[in-house]
Amino acid sequence: MVYDKLLERYADELGVVDGVPIAPYADLTEKLRLPEVGTINWNESHLVDLDEGNDAEEEPIDWDDIVMSIGAEIVLGIRLKIKSELHYTWCASQSTPVCPS
Question: CB 20: neighbour CB atoms within 10 A?
Fold first, then answer.
C-alpha cells in the first residue's frame, strides 16, 4: 500500500511512467535526490519525534520521512475505521524490518 501511494503521489519526482519507475530510479543502486517537499502533515499520527528539543537540528525531509508519513496515514485510517465501526481504540507501530544475517 505504501509503495503504491508513494508512486501515485510522487510519480514525477520518482520518474514513474505508466506506474513503473524508469531509469535512473529503476536502478536500485542509484540514490534518489531529496524530495521537493517543504513540510509533512503528520495529522493525528502521534509519531514520537526523537530529535525534539531546543538543540535539535532540523534535517531536510527525505524519502524515509515521506514513506513513514504515508504509513502513518494508512494506520490512522485503519484506527479511525475500527473506532467508528467497533468502538475500540488501539495503537500501532511502524518499524524497519530486521533481517537476520
Answer: 9
Closest CA to 43 of 72, 20, 18: 72
| Residue recorded with cell 537540528 | 57
Domain limits of the chain? 1-44+60-101
Q: Cell numbers for 81, please give them.
A: 475505521
Give the type of residue at 34. Answer: L
Q: What are phi and psi of 22, to 5 degrees?
A: -110, 170
The residues near 47 (Cβ < 8 Å, ≥ 6 apart) are: 68, 72
Secondary structure element (H or E) that encloses residue 85, with its range:
helix 63-86
Q: How many CB atoms lie within 10 A of CB 70?
A: 20
Q: Which set of grid coordinates corresponds to residue 92?
A: 500501532
Per DSSP, 25 falls in state: T
How do residues 28-41 score in pLDDT, each as one tens digit?
A: 677 777 888 888 87
Q: What is the pTM of this model?
A: 0.71
